[in-house]
Write a structure and sequence with these properties.
The protein is an alpha+beta fold. The protein is built from ten helices and four strands, in the order H-H-H-H-H-H-H-H-E-H-E-E-E-H. Helix 6 packs antiparallel against helix 7. About 5% of the residues have low confidence.
């Protein structure tokens, strides 16, 4: 876990010669991202994807971004530190160095990208960029994401059964791979909420109770 002291310790000012990924994306019109992303974090994620493709470093870049995602998930305070508006150039340089070290980043594309975010005062966008880049990689790999929300964590056997059932359904196109994620939300009380792409199947107890309450209210 990264401490605030470690992140904000004095370090060299970020090199002003960092690569500008927006310019790289604009110059690489022959690289077409698998999906269109929106928002500033989507713009940066698309620029990083374009730069990685142009330098034949897509998989190393994806691995490093995944490492950053794991780091952000383990340290909830990290996102708020990245959003601090009063960071000095030395602070930002120290943060970038710590991120690279703690996440085990080896891809030059990601090292340069972090420097670009820091120089542009956009380190706070990193969580969103990580999420959007994951979307790009899933699309590039032909993956269809299925998020299964349950009141308690599901065991692997249950998740495998769900994956097998959905893979054979019309929800997953031919040649596509299913990427399953289990999220826990006690508020649904029981049952499941299954999200596949832009479709949602709500089989939760809370949804059934809401429907029952509506029927009772309409009958009164």
């Amino acid at each position: 876990m990264l401490s605030r002291q470690a992140l904000l310790r004095p370090a060299r000012v970020i090199n002003t010669q960092v690569r500008t990924y927006a310019a790289a994306a604009a110059a690489s019109s022959n690289v077409k991202p698998p999906v269109a992303l929106f928002g500033l974090d989507g713009t940066y994620a698309t620029a990083l994807y374009t730069a990685a493709v142009k330098t034949n470093a897509l998989e190393p870049t994806a691995k490093s971004i995944n490492g950053l995602g794991n780091l952000l998930a383990k340290d909830p305070k990290l996102a708020s530190i990245l959003e601090t508006p009063t960071l000095s150039p030395a602070d930002k340089s120290a943060i970038v160095a710590e991120l690279q070290k703690s996440a085990g980043i080896s891809a030059e594309t990601v090292k340069n990208f972090l420097n670009t975010l820091a120089e542009n005062n956009r380190l706070g966008l990193l969580p969103g960029v990580v999420s959007k880049f994951s979307e790009l990689m899933s699309a590039a790999r032909g993956e269809v994401e299925m998020v299964v929300t349950s009141a308690q964590p599901l065991d692997n056997k249950t998740l495998n059964r769900l994956e097998s059932a959905v893979t054979k359904s019309a929800y997953v196109g031919s040649g596509k791979k299913l990427k399953v994620t289990n999220k826990v939300n006690p508020d649904i009380i029981g049952g499941l909420v299954v999200e596949i792409g832009d479709r949602t199947i709500d089989l939760s107890v809370s949804a059934k109770l809401a429907k029952m309450n509506k029927l009772l209210n309409d009958a009164l």
